[in-house]
Amino acid sequence: MKITVMTADEQIITLDVDPHETVENVKALLEVETRVLLQNQQLLYNGKEVRNFEKLSALGVKDDDLIMMVSNAASSASSNALSFNPDGSAANPGAFQQHIRNDSNLIAQLFQSDPELAQVILGNDLNRLQEVLRERHRQKSELRRQQEEENALLFADPFDVEAQKKIEAAIRQKGIDENWAAALEHNPEAFARVVMLYVDMEVNGVPLKAFVDSGAQSTIISKSCAERCGLLRLLDQRYKGIAHGVGQSEILGRIHVAPIKIGNIFYPCSFLVLDASNMEFLFGLDMLRKHQCSIDLKDNVLRVGGGEVSVPFLQEKDLPSRFLDEERFSKQASSSGAPVTSGTTDKSKNVSTGGQSSGSARPDTSQGPDFEAKVAKLVELGFGRDAVIQALKFFDGNEEQAAGFLFGG
């Protein structure tokens, strides 16, 4: 009788065999036709695998019946292509990637459980795929190691001090991990980088991006920025000193007044000039208070002059990468409560600053008849003497500014 054999690659072979022939002999004939070794052949009749010792007649095979042949060698090769190296990378990353891509259900599950791996599999970078697979292998190995250590601790001697310390540490770490997982689920924005507050300003007609820092007592400009803005000629070196923060920087002096433009309005501003190459311009609390500024984080704007001007805070994409270094430096210059010590002039003094602030070297205006006359005049207006002295010192003896501050308070 004649039987038809179809291979896995859809090759059709017709064999003339005896009805009482064994399956093993049929495979021998197919080995000649297909060059697939007998032991690597798997024959299926009506969807069921037939065994070598069985006869065709006993299986019910009749003339012109169809038998399927599957090569175990192909299955083995496919299995090897989907195997992994000891480091967790795929033995054949291209075959592994294609195998996952062909299974839409598996891709959907990956997007739920491991979106990074799913994205890499759908991409074209096989090197990146291998890196992710190695990382997943490392993570699984670490988790397995931790679980083995935890299991070992369960059977540790309860009177072993070292074992009890390890159990305590494991319990504490478990609490930390649970807290971290809860934060990822309910407060994921806490893991994002917080961009500091910057606005566009013009200083003496030169545009720049100003770092708004209410934690800094004084407004600061770098020497290079002051030179670029044409202000270095106004530097008063009598106000030299050292700014102490997390680190310290040299105060070269002070520029008493210069125009800054916020929005469409000009405002007078004074600066401390620091010898800082990686910090450009810091808009501190002195000018924020003077110009009645409000940091509105709900609308993400800086309001100036009691609200007459509103300028938006800049987004991260609008800031040069070097500004990240500038933020670190500004904190060194302005984030501790340490004092600023005076430098070369006898008229300067140490100024202790509270909270997060930067100090400023100021002349000592708390002596002399002129200062006492100003104190007396403001006391007559109904303010306490201590508050008056503090306000005059803060505004370098400027009676009008001190009065405005006291009335505003």
Automatic annotation (TrEMBL):
Residues 330-369 are annotated as: Disordered. Residues 1-76 form the Ubiquitin-like domain. Residues 368-409 form the UBA domain. The keyword Glycosyltransferase does not apply. InterPro entries: DDI1_N, Peptidase_aspartic_DDI1-type, Peptidase_aspartic_dom_sf, UBA, UBA-like_sf, Ubiquitin-like_dom, Ubiquitin-like_domsf. Its main location: cytoplasm. Residues 331-368 have a biased composition (Polar residues). One of its GO terms (cellular component) is cytoplasm. It is found in: Cytoplasm. It holds the Pfam family Asp_protease. The keyword Protease applies. GO terms for molecular function: aspartic-type endopeptidase activity; polyubiquitin modification-dependent protein binding. GO terms for biological process: proteolysis. Keywords: Aspartyl protease, Cytoplasm, Hydrolase, Protease. Belongs to the DDI1 family. This is DNA damage-inducible protein 1. It comes from Rubus argutus (Southern blackberry).
